[in-house]
Design brief:
This protein has 230 residues and is of the alpha+beta class. It has helices at 4-11, 21-30, 85-90, 111-120, 123-148, 151-162, 178-184, 189-199, 216-224, and strands at residues 32-36, 41-43, 51-57, 60-65, 71-77, 82-83, 97-100, 104-110, 170-173, 204-207, 210-213. Residues 149-217 form the HTH crp-type domain.
């Protein structure tokens, strides 16, 4: 049974916050609430999609396995973010697998319930389209990074996205292990280590799972600079 705090987080997710309250209450009352340990599978690639998922706490990764057994990280989600909308509503298999990369809590909304409510109120469809568009925009941004930025610039932008202050400097905790960070940024672990070393020149110091950024504006200038100048 979900606590009110969990429901409050779910209400603020992109998927639910634009819906009328009566629909949100219906979805929350029929949702499945689960906790996962680090490394636990949420669903597997090619499994039938039966729900839309909202992360309430922790981190979840989506990934694909190649025929050679290599893992390609597609995306990483955290508190208040949803995934699986498009495939769940089309009743097709998942094109990716999902795994908890930290202890996490996830709300699962059965797709038949969403489809039923969509037939009653088209506004629900608009909300789901908005959520799906956000995922598409994120993937386009990832592609742009891979094409237009060096590895060190991608790491710089990743660190900047963790900063929640406008001060000159800050210290942030790396939200998951370095191997996953490398996969998320389209890099090999050894390339990530070299990128961290390069960022020392712009005031970034890595200490285990923390990054100390001496000057946020300087790091932003580095991330946005023309790669040909590097």
């Amino acid at each position: 049974m979900a606590h009110e705090a969990q429901k409050a987080i779910a209400r603020q997710s992109l998927l639910l916050k634009s819906l009328p309250n009566q629909h949100v209450d219906t979805l929350l009352s029929h949702a499945i609430w689960r906790s996962y340990d680090r490394g636990e599978t949420i669903f597997l690639q090619e499994e039938e999609a039966k729900a839309v998922h909202v992360v309430l706490a922790g981190w979840v990764k989506l990934f694909r396995m190649s025929p050679t057994g290599a893992e390609a990280v597609v995306s990483v989600f955290t508190r208040g973010e949803s995934f699986g909308e498009a495939v769940a509503l089309r009743n097709v298999p998942y094109p990716v697998s999902a795994e908890a990369v930290s202890a996490c809590e996830v709300m699962h909304i059965p797709s038949p319930l969403l489809l039923s409510l969509m037939k009653e109120d088209p506004e629900i469809g608009v909300s789901i389209l908005a959520s799906t568009f956000t995922h598409l925009h994120s993937l386009v941004a990832q592609l742009e990074q891979l094409k237009a930025q060096t590895g060190a610039q991608r790491v710089a932008e990743f660190l900047l996205n963790l900063c929640d202050t406008a001060d000159d400097g800050c210290e942030v905790e790396l939200p998951y292990d370095k191997m996953l960070i490398a996969g998320r940024l389209g890099m090999k672990p050894e390339s990530l280590s070299r990128a961290f070393s390069r960022l020392k020149a712009v005031g970034v110091k890595i200490n285990r799972n923390h990054a100390v950024i001496s000057n946020i504006e300087r790091l932003r200038d580095y991330a946005e600079a023309d790669p040909s100048e590097k």
